[in-house]
């Protein structure tokens, strides 16, 4: 009889451990999926931004033909951002693209007839709207990453996470100087 009690207690303990492992694994998978979803939302907005940039460059080209270096710099920064392979590379590329866009808008400032162009004004408005959406999507992504990374570090989930190969996820933060951390300001 005593052996049966010991076996019953061990079986219940084993079941409790199994339930914990399943719950911890499922919780980590859910959070990982949220992180991936949040990144896809950032990616959608970044692609929208990338699609706007060639139109913006073309609108400025007609007015500022001698500003070839600036226009090529924006195009090159856009291409680097599109080609970024992970969150860290994307953050670095976005910092470069933001700086290039600031240079582009500085060039545009010197051409009053460009600032009055309806197409340019519409592109400016769309880019400003997109920058706001990127900031929101980036914040949502970073909040989701924070939840995931916190769960990975909490005991006893950290034991399960390590055994099952879950790892920390990078935040999407801009690199470089302070002004690069701000949204691109389009002010004409």
Structure description:
The protein has 188 residues and is an all-alpha fold. It has six helices and no strands. It has a single domain, classed as de novo design (two linked rop proteins) (Up-down Bundle), CATH 1.20.1440.20. Helix 1 runs antiparallel to helix 2 and helix 2 (68-83) runs antiparallel to helix 3 (87-109).
Name the descriptors.
78% helix; mainly alpha; rod-shaped; 188 residues
Summed up, the helix count is: 6
How much of the polypeptide forms β-strand, as a percent range? under 5%
- Structural class, by secondary structure, is mainly alpha
Radius of gyration: 25 Å
CATH class: Mainly Alpha
- Return the CATH architecture: Up-down Bundle
What distance separates the N and C termini?
A: 87 Å
TL;DR of this structure?
The chain has helices at 2-61, 68-83, 87-109, 112-115, 118-153, 157-163. It has 188 residues and is mainly alpha-helical.
Question: What topology does this entry show?
Answer:
Elements: H1 2-61, H2 68-83, H3 87-109, H4 112-115, H5 118-153, H6 157-163
Helix pairs in contact: 1-2, 1-5, 2-3
């Amino acid at each position: 009889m005593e052996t049966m009690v010991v076996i019953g207690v061990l079986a219940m303990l084993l079941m409790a451990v199994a339930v914990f492992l399943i719950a911890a694994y499922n919780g980590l998978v859910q959070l990982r999926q949220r992180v991936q979803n949040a990144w896809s939302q950032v990616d959608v907005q970044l692609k929208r931004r990338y699609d706007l940039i060639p139109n913006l460059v073309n609108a400025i080209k007609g007015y500022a033909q001698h500003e070839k270096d600036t226009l090529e710099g924006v195009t090159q920064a856009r291409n680097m951002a599109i080609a970024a392979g992970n969150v860290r590379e994307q953050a670095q590329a976005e910092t470069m693209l933001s700086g290039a866009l600031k240079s582009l808008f500085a060039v545009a400032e010197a051409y009053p007839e460009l600032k009055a162009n309806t197409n340019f004004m519409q592109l400016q408005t769309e880019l400003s709207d997109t920058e706001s959406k990127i900031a929101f999507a980036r914040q949502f992504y970073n909040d989701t990453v924070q939840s995931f990374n916190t769960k990975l570090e909490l005991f006893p989930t950290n034991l399960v996470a390590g055994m099952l190969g879950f790892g920390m996820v990078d935040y999407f933060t801009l690199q470089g100087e302070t002004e690069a951390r701000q949204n691109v300001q389009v002010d004409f």
